[in-house]
Write a structure and sequence with these properties.
Length: 372
């Protein structure tokens, strides 16, 4: 797809999303353009309730007092409304984008083009960069044999870059993932490219397979002159190849929760996988009350000159009442210590929990809104 055409496809939804500064009702008539209808209805949206206003103020306070560039979006799924702070801007996703690879793979399953029991062998030529537990197995045994179901599990729950990139190849590459997003009305979410290409470009490098071994990538990155490193780092942040507005991320999570993106079986499989995520236990998840169900995916970028690009977590949070919330907290850049970032994320979830506690009880006959 040409760059100008892709730009138009990306720009139009983002411009429409610019009107989503208040809560939006769910649109059910597929005969009309949902984004246009949402934008029109947003102009006459009902005023915020006192509870919603309190949550809105909390989100703004949390985002506004954090020392870094942060975007926050919170969607009340049953209420069909979204609040945000900087939620219309593009933020680098980093490994949050693994979620779209998994969705594309499961869409292939639903279409009968992929069987998750299909076996795949991973060898040294398949290894990538940064976090990839599979690499230890390949080093020890020479190869790793598994099926695509396990690759999805490893890519989501362990954020394994090799598992993700091998799954990406099987579904047709980055263009196939972007096509899935575009086809489901999520064109403002950019997928970008595989981990090898993306991380190399951010570091001012071109990928070589030798970088997958030991500290080779870090050694090569250290040899890049400071001016080139800075240019690559700043270029990525100015126009992230994997950028996404937080409001679009919570919309995607909402559609996943409702079963609007995948079949019931694939939706349940992915939600169950997200509930087993091991990365980022002290990010959003640590802010949830003990009796809440949390399904989430993290993303973590590179450091340069003491600053980190991309420190993220997005997820679905289900209260004992059965009500669910989609939350995205995306840090584009910050020098704040990691504990401060995690505490900020936890504050957002605690604000949502306070909002939930003030809402009217759900009737006992109401079914749980979550899909398991």
């Amino acid at each position: 797809m040409s760059h100008p055409l892709r730009f138009l496809l990306l720009a139009l939804p983002v411009l429409l999303l610019a009107l989503l500064t208040v809560w939006l009702p769910r649109v059910g008539d597929s005969a009309h353009d949902p984004l246009v209808e949402q934008a029109s209805e947003a102009v006459e949206a009902a005023p915020l309730t006192p509870e919603q206003r309190e949550l809105d103020q909390a989100v703004s306070r949390i985002g506004g007092t954090f020392d870094g560039h942060v975007g926050i979006a919170v969607r009340d799924i049953e209420g069909g409304r979204t609040l945000h702070f900087n939620g219309l801007e593009l933020f680098p996703q980093q490994s949050v984008s693994k979620l779209w690879v998994a969705m594309t793979a499961l869409d292939e399953v639903d279409a009968g083009r992929l069987d998750l029991s299909e076996m795949v062998a991973i060898r040294s030529a398949d290894l990538t960069v940064f976090h990839q537990p599979i690499r230890d197995i390949v080093r020890r045994d020479g190869s790793f044999s598994s099926d695509y179901a396990e690759l999805i599990e490893r890519a989501i729950t362990e954020s394994d870059n090799t598992a993700n990139d091998r799954l990406l190849r099987r579904v047709g590459g980055a263009e196939a993932v972007q096509d899935f997003l575009d086809a489901h009305g999520l064109a403002s979410i950019r997928f970008g490219t595989d981990e090898r290409s993306k991380q190399s470009a951010i570091a001012g490098l071109e990928w070589r397979q030798s970088y997958a071994q030991g500290p080779a990538f870090f050694d090569a990155r250290d040899r890049v002159d400071e001016a080139s490193r800075r240019e690559a780092f700043e270029s990525y942040l100015a126009d992230p190849i994997d950028g996404a507005p937080p409001v679009a991320l919570v919309e995607a999570l909402t559609r996943l929760q409702r079963g609007e993106l995948l079949s019931a079986g694939s939706t349940g499989l992915l939600l169950g996988t997200l509930a087993r995520t091991k990365s980022g236990p002290q990010r959003l998840k640590a802010g949830a009350p003990e009796n809440w169900i949390v399904r989430h995916k993290t993303g973590t970028g590179q450091f340069f000159d003491g600053e980190q690009s991309g420190y993220n977590d997005i997820g679905l949070f289900t209260a004992p009442s059965g009500r669910s919330y989609a939350i995205a907290v995306m840090i584009a850049r910050t020098r704040e210590p990691t504990p401060v970032r995690m505490e900020m994320m936890q504050q957002v979830v605690r604000a949502v929990a306070r909002y939930e506690a003030k809402r009217a009880p759900v009737p006992a006959s109401r079914p749980d809104a979550a899909i398991d």
